[in-house]
Write a structure and sequence with these properties.
heterodimer, A: alpha/beta, TIM Barrel, 5-stranded parallel β-sheet, 4-stranded parallel β-sheet, B: 402 residues, alpha/beta, Rossmann fold, 6-stranded mixed β-sheet
Chain lengths: 235, 402
Amino acid sequence: MSHLVLGYPTLQESIATAEQYIAAGYEILELQIPFSHPTADGPVITQACRDAVEKGNITVEDCLGALAGIREKYPDQEIIVMTYLNRIFAFGLERFCLEMEALGIQHIIVPDLPVDSPQAHTILAQKVQLVPVLAANVHPERLDKLLGMGFDFFYLMSDFKITGSTFSLHPRLQEVIERIKTANPLARVGIGFGISTAEQVRLVTTHADYAIIGSTLIKAKMEGRLAEVMADLAV
Amino acid sequence: MNGGGYFGRYGGCYVPEVLIPALEQMAQGFEEIKSDPVFLEEFYTTLREINGRPTAFTPLPRISEKLGGARLFMKNEGLNHTGAHKINHCIGQALLAKRLGKKRIIAETGAGQHGYASAAVCARLGLDCTVYMGRKDYERQRPNVYWMELLGAKVVAVDDGSQTLNDAVIAAFKDWVANPESFYLLGSAVGPHPFPAMNTFFQKIVGEEIREQCLTETGKLPDYCLACVGGGSNAMGIFYDFLDEQSVQLIGVEAGGRGMQPGEHASKVQRGVEGIFEGYHSYFLQDGTGNIAGTHSVSAGLDYCGVSPILAYLADEKRIQFESASDEEALAAVQMVAREEGFILALESAHAFAHAFKLAPQCSPDEVIVINASGRGEKDLFITMRHFQEESLLTYAQYLLK
Ligand SMILES: Cc1ncc(COP(=O)(O)O)c(C=O)c1O
């Protein structure tokens, strides 16, 4: 599963990168709608978001247009949209969900939206699912509560850090994954934050369904080495 | 307040899941200490021992006479140790951190007053302290950086974004995500639950003291209470005890900066729009498409994009009125209070005074206006000196470099 920021460095180039990811066979695309202050992201993704917002003036509408283009060309590609709450709050939560539904997007990731908050209820009343982003410190009772709410895709932070940090895998994640899979064998689990080598991809996918690669690919794009880095990451 | 830290629809706890255990632990700890006589005794004793509370309630007779109209008083929170009201909530939160067994404190700071107070309290309690400060604030409030470091805190200049308070808050949250066992000692009545309620709880002593002092001095409650509004800690401090006193008019004064064009001010209640950011639902200065906008104020402590969800709620309820004072008006107020009454105000606090000086002449002589002097002005030495005596500042800088 691979991640990019829509509108970075330009809308056209981000669409081209998405196509490159699809061609390389990434099963899921995680496409981020840029926000001026991505509070849970590290320096690389923050920079990409800033550039998209400040230089490109990229709006939610622009991103929806890009998503529609990708969808038209790749009707079966699984896409997860990621963004921060204020961006879609300003756009209108219900309106945003309807747009997602029309685009055939089933999951969205909103890291600063607890999935049991009033705004999450507004979203969950529509057809789109939220992806809880959990870390190794999630209390068992809280995890059971979320499992009881019927989520079917979980994003786990590899460790206590922000995106783009040095990779490490927290030992307690194994337990979290087992609890998820026991409660719902069909639930899918991805692990992300800091993954930068094929070896790490292999390690992560022995535990989870997906390794999520973000900052490494965006940094590679910044440095003009995307094809090379994608080849290095292939497993 | 209703459940989950909501004030009407404002407030809440909008944070990544990784921070929820820490915030739940903090909220539970806060619930316990609110009615724990042992904790409260320690809190009030500490306020007395290191801040010398109650702080003075000082008449401003010369200015009152000059302006004509209401009698003006100031509540001098600048007399607190480290020079501002910030240390009230630092003592409360640090004592809670201790009780929860925390060893490491994270804080953000704008003007440096909250960081300075955090560093001092952490030194006294033997807690490790890391303070995040936007690079621009780090440069413009340099004296406070030095004090924090002398007190043993680690001060991290944040180069991200606009390099002001907002960026410091984000950097502090990122540190907390990486170190969820640390205690985040947030510096205003903003952020996710329980911060706004907790901050107000530790600051409300300001209004409680004013109630008694004003009754003793004037035989009545204030007709008006004024405070500057950055995030809202000093404002909630002075307002809270009077919320149910309908005769007391409450006025929050925001930074008018250089004018009301976007990016030139920090008047979020008056010019912001509803949003959810940095953990809470409130008014934020935004660009119209859900991005957070830039701010400007001559005072680092007011130069922030958001405002307390409690103030947002009370603004909607029309319980608190909001006004602005410009950079120039604040600087003029500093000069006026210095010359006429002998006090050097923090630039933040001077915003509240600037509005009080417009209000007083419209009032009758039996009316009483109380202004929160949230901090003293020594920290602004290089900013106000550049404004009032640029030549002397340059001469002094050259002398230091010799
Ligand atoms: C002296 C003083 N007053 C006011 C403020 C503004 O903060 P708040 O609105 O939380 O009181 C600050 C913030 O740094 C300050 O140092």
